[in-house]
């Protein structure tokens, strides 16, 4: 099933409060979310039959919608229950979970005050985001042309579909050059993130990461920061300029899809897959496992 187009897969999708056959989960071509980007979503992973930090993800989904000016008509508890029930219904233990909410098709134009707000959840099997062999030795990153925007120009604290347009462009450009992904700067020229993951660097035993003041403060990012502090690693959140990359020894990225992935190269800069990176990779995989299973 992994190679099938997503509209041809089997099973069920939770759509506006009901479980519908996968092929029947459709929306009209004149939906506002498609034309004007009035759409928010989450990316979550299930490990061993449990969705990691589900409630935190669902609350962020609601907050993203609020930042785009609409309210999701289903409570956090309802969406949580639907995610858990759908995971069982799909028969997966390890899977990717995608809740999404968007404005419908009652009005077509920039203004869409009366449009129905729709919500859906899909779950599918999705292995490592990057090639497993490449991931272990460290992925290669290009330098993206586009930059993350000033928070005064976009709702940068939301996980909104429209904010990913430049990410897709940048990732495609990187892949055409043979890279796995791209690192983006922000509008000030400071290091920001990758196209779908936050970024960390290591120097002299300390971990450095950009402040998330114009891009998403990822749930995986916060988890890894907590894991690093538990280990006693010094963790510094600060502005990082691209010319500083030459002095860093290790680099890794974090995200629900990427988990913790080492980086071996960013443009002309090279990094080792060192002990701190490997430790946090292992710690993260231990953290995401269901506690009951980990105790066995």
List low-pLDDT spans. Answer: none
The biggest sheet amounts to:
9 strands, mixed
Could you tell me the CATH topology label of the largest domain: D-amino Acid Aminotransferase, Chain A, domain 2
- Indicate the CATH architecture of the largest domain: Alpha-Beta Barrel
Proportion in helices = 25-40%
Distance between the termini: 31 Å
Q: So, the CATH homologous superfamily of the largest domain?
A: D-amino Acid Aminotransferase, subunit A, domain 2
Q: What is the ordering of alpha helices and beta strands?
A: EEHEEEHHEEHEHEEEEHEEEEHH
Overall strand count: 16
Q: Give the quaternary arrangement of the chains.
A: single chain
Structural class: alpha+beta
Total count of domains:
2
Estimated share of beta-strand residues: 25-35%
Overall radius of gyration = 19 Å
């Amino acid at each position: 099933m992994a190679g099938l187009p997503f509209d041809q897969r089997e099973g069920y999708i939770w759509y506006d409060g009901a479980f519908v056959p996968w092929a029947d989960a459709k929306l009209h071509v004149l939906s506002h979310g498609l034309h004007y980007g009035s759409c928010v979503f989450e990316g979550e992973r299930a490990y061993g039959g449990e969705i990691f930090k589900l409630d935190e993800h669902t609350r962020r989904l609601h907050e993203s919608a609020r930042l785009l000016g609409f309210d999701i008509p289903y409570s956090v508890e309802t969406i949580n229950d639907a995610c858990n029930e759908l995971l069982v219904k799909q028969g997966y233990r390890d899977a990717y979970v995608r809740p999404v909410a968007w404005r419908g098709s009652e009005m077509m134009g920039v203004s869409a005050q009366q449009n129905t707000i729709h919500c859906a959840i899909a779950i599918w099997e999705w292995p490592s985001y990057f090639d497993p062999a490449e991931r272990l030795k460290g992925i290669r990153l290009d330098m993206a042309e586009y930059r993350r925007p000033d928070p005064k120009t976009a709702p940068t604290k939301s996980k909104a579909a429209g904010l990913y347009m430049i990410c897709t462009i940048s990732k495609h450009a990187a892949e055409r050059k043979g890279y796995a992904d791209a690192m983006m700067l922000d509008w000030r020229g400071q290091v920001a993130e990758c196209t779908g993951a936050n970024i960390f660097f290591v120097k002299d035993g300390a971990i450095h990461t950009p402040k998330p003041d114009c891009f998403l403060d990822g749930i995986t990012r916060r988890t890894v920061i907590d894991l690093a502090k538990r280990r006693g690693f010094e963790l510094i959140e600060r502005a990082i300029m691209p010319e500083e990359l030459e002095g860093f020894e290790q680099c890794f990225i974090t995200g629900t899809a990427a988990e913790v992935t080492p980086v071996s190269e960013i443009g002309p800069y090279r990094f080792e897959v060192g002990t701190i990176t490997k430790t946090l990779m292992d710690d993260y995989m231990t953290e995401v496992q269901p506690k009951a299973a980990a105790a066995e």
